[in-house]
């Protein structure tokens, strides 16, 4: 695409975003540099194209030529979407992937002028539309599985937006979008903008209701209750109603509908299962109404003025919605997990938490049910072409923290109901072939004692739930460890996890009850202080955490990340703590000596010299004692439970282990690069002899790991070492992806190699799919979504899950 054709959509995108909320300095021509920074930060263009788009936007603002009606929206929709089987699909290419970070794709797709939907359309297409063109998933048989996806990051921004506009989340929750890294407007500006958008949304619903009575479950247009609602809406004081006023208006709109549980969009019909159905129905209907109104030249002046008023309301609403969308979408090229955790904290701040008031606890349960249904729908409903008419099985393993405390049962039941809710609106047999399993998180922390206590609490709560309600054993399928890898080495939690595995292995189910079986996975090798630290952590997980039967490694990038690229992205050096660096060197020394190779002799001497320089001399006996205390050997089928802490290891290495200060590692030095490359090869070879699968997450690695493009991802090093590798999505709501996108991105990247053929690329993808299917924790007795819905229908409020006799 030429720069001219690229810059026009970017310029139009700026017109439809309330950029002043994303950066108060961005106020038209007075902040051209700020606007260009905003575009580059969101990965929609390079600097030259961004400046061209900003110049065009500033000129339009200066002439007072802001968008009116559907001006620009339809052009943007055509530039991003095409129609596949009548539903929106992303056009392949960089433009669409960039623009959907600046414009909410769910709202923009509704503006496509070619969208002609039948009256019985459930409006439940995928929140991340499939990519049009060659779809390798159509040619891959045997089903698909996503084994690495987080509940906290799976929800699209539109879910939270609808919750705010429906009055279900308090506007004060917008405090959580503040960030020290991003220059967002203050909380008062956000509350005013979102509150005003909530009123605008109701006004648009009122206008559409008068025109066509689109909402099937809403009262007829001549109903006096509806007329009274419109009158109250028109008399709302000020452009920004209070949250209480938004709630009152939302409940008034909801009163004519028979909704099964309260945490839903008030514009959604009671039989519609998809959380965005009401929002999509509203936007599609308003767009259709405006097109007809503009084409009708027989309208009176008063009617034309009213149409212009509706168009202005739509513009205000979409501009704020698109700004909110950008707040919850991960920036392209953000460095490391620090930026990722910043985005994740914003989502967590929008999640209601239990309070002492009973009403608040009910809200939490409704939210948990609603978000689980939305999470399943966003990744299974409409995400795979051809599923409505039939197709292979789709398995989804969702990771979440185990509920604790006296509300654990209430939350778990809400999750089960949510999984069932996601199956209610499926018109075909797709729900008969879709299974959802839950993997419970054990979180790491910078404080070892806090991490251990939290892990014990979570595992005890999970054990109590599974013991009291055996039917849950078919759905809760695994345990995962995630969190701060830099400050929490794997050996800290290894004893706690080992005891939990012992209890699972020793459990004997009563006759006719499901067995207690758990898979084990661990986030490791993704964001350690240094590449050498990541390799040591991977080895610790394989040796001390995962059972002899195997398990999975989350990300595991330290095994394959090219050292020159890793250190080059960090200005040529890293700065781990001296204590961690010393342990890394001891581990490297021991691993090189245990794996004979012609190059290892020189590398061992290099490591010994560096240790001697850092310690002021080297004691061979202490070095050997420290390596032996790491205890990488195994006793029988299970690793040793009595592990030395890092403080104890440092005590064995030096007299004074007070080594918390940082030390500079010159990563681009030739000898250091050779050391890392050899240790990566040694680690891959060791892992290939174990039944351990590496979970790769392409879009997550491209965005967080700053790989730049999918073709630069280093997964071939893992495959060449004969390591099983599965393809997953990680946090698709933050990254705007799904499993269909991940397969297609990797297929496209491989086809850029001039020596690659379609058959070879497809064979590579099929092998990764096979690795995922063989390493999944979901079992044959895990119920499908349809079966789970039927199970829950047979329960009473006191029974969590139907247990077969």
> How many individual helices?
32
Give the termini separation. 62 Å
Mean pLDDT: 80
Class from secondary-structure proportions: alpha/beta
Number of strands: 14
Shape call: globular
Instruction: Work out the strand percent.
Output: 5-15%
User: Helix share of residues?
Assistant: 40-55%
Condensed summary:
The protein has 805 residues and is an alpha/beta fold. The protein has 32 helices and 14 strands.
Question: Would you write up a description of this structure?
Answer:
- This protein has 805 residues and is an alpha/beta fold.
- It is built from 32 helices and 14 strands.
- The strands form four sheets. Strands 3-4-5-6-7-8-13-14 form an eight-stranded parallel beta sheet. A two-stranded antiparallel sheet has the order 1-2. It has a two-stranded antiparallel ribbon with strand order 9-12.
- It is globular.
- Helix content is 51%, strand content 8%.
- Helix 1 crosses helix 4 (47-62), helix 18 runs parallel beside helix 19 and helix 22 runs antiparallel to helix 23 (600-615).
């Amino acid at each position: 695409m030429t720069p001219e054709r690229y810059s026009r959509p970017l310029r139009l995108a700026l017109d439809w975003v309330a950029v002043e909320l994303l950066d108060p300095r961005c106020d038209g021509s007075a902040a051209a540099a700020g606007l260009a920074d905003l575009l580059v930060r969101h990965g929609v263009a390079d600097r030259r194209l961004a400046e061209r788009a900003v110049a065009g936007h500033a000129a339009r603002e200066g002439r007072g030529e802001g968008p009116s009606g559907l001006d620009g929206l339809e052009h943007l929709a055509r530039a991003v979407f095409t129609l596949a089987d009548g539903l929106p699909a992303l056009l392949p290419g960089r433009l669409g992937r960039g623009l959907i970070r600046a414009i909410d794709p769910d709202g923009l797709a509704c503006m496509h002028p070619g969208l002609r939907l039948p009256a019985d359309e459930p409006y439940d297409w995928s929140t991340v539309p499939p990519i049009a063109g060659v779809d390798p998933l159509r040619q891959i048989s045997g089903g698909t599985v996503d084994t690495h996806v987080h509940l906290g990051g799976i929800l699209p921004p539109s879910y939270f937006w609808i919750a705010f506009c429906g009055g279900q989340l308090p506007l004060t929750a917008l405090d959580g979008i503040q960030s020290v890294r991003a220059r967002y407007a203050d909380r008062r500006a956000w509350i005013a903008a979102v509150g005003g958008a909530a009123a605008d949304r109701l006004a648009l619903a009122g206008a559409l209701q008068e025109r066509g009575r689109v909402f099937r479950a809403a009262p007829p247009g001549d109903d006096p209750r509806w007329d009274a609602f419109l009158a109250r809406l028109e008399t709302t004081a000020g452009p920004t109603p209070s949250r209480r006023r938004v709630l009152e208006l939302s409940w008034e709109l909801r009163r004519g509908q028979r909704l099964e549980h309260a945490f839903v969009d008030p514009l959604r019909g009671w039989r519609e299962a998809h959380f965005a159905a009401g929002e999509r129905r509203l936007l599609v209907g308003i767009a259709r109404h405006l097109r007809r109104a503009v084409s009708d030249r027989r309208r009176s002046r008063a009617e034309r003025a009213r149409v212009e008023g509706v168009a202005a309301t739509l513009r205000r609403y979409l501009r704020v919605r698109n700004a909110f969308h950008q707040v919850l979408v991960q920036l392209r090229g953000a460095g490391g997990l620090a930026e990722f955790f910043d985005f994740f904290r914003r989502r967590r701040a929008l999640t209601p938490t239990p309070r002492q008031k009973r009403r608040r606890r009910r809200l939490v349960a409704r939210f948990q049910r609603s978000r689980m249904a939305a999470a399943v729908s966003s990744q299974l409903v409409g995400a795979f072409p051809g599923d409505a008419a039939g197709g292979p099985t789709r398995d989804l393993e969702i990771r979440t923290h185990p509920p604790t405390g006296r509300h654990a049962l209430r939350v778990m039941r809400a999750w089960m109901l949510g999984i069932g809710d996601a199956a209610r609106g499926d018109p075909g047999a797709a729900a008969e072939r879709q299974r959802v399993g839950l993997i419970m998180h054990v979180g790491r922390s910078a404080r070892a004692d806090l991490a251990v206590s939290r892990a014990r609490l979570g595992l005890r709560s999970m054990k109590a739930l599974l013991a009291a309600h055996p039917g849950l054993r078919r759905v809760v399928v695994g345990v995962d460890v995630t969190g701060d890898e830099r400050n929490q080495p794997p050996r800290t939690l290894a004893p706690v996890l080992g005891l939990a595995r012992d209890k699972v292995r020793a459990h004997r189910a009563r006759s006719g009850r499901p067995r207690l079986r758990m898979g084990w996975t661990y986030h490791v090798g993704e964001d350690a202080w240094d590449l050498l630290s990541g390799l040591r952590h991977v080895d610790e997980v394989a040796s001390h955490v995962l059972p002899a039967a195997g398990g999975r490694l989350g990300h595991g990038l330290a095994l394959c990340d090219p050292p020159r690229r890793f250190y080059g992205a960090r200005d040529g050096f890293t700065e781990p703590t001296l204590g961690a660096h010393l342990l890394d060197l001891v581990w490297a020394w021991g691993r090189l000596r245990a794996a004979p190779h012609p190059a290892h002799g020189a590398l061992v001497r290099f490591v010994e010299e560096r240790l001697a320089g850092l310690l002021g001399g080297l004691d061979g006996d202490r070095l050997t004692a420290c390596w032996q205390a790491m205890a990488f050997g195994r006793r029988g089928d299970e690793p040793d439970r009595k592990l030395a802490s890092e403080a104890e290891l440092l005590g064995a290495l030096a007299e004074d282990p007070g080594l918390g200060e940082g030390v500079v590692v010159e990563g681009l030095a030739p000898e250091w690069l050779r050391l890392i490359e050899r240790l990566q090869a040694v680690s891959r070879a060791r892992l290939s002899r174990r039944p351990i699968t590496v979970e790769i997450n392409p879009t997550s690695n491209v965005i967080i790991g700053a790989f730049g493009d999918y073709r630069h991802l280093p997964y071939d090093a893992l495959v060449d070492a004969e390591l099983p590798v599965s393809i997953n999505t990680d946090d698709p709501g933050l990254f705007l992806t799904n499993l269909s996108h991940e397969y297609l991105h990797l297929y496209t990247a491989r086809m850029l190699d001039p020596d690659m053929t379609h058959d070879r690329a497809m064979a590579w993808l099929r092998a990764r799919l096979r690795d995922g299917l063989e390493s999944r924790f979901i079992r044959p007795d895990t119920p499908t979504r349809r079966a789970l819905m039927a199970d829950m229908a047979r329960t009473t409020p006191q029974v969590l899950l139907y247990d077969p006799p």
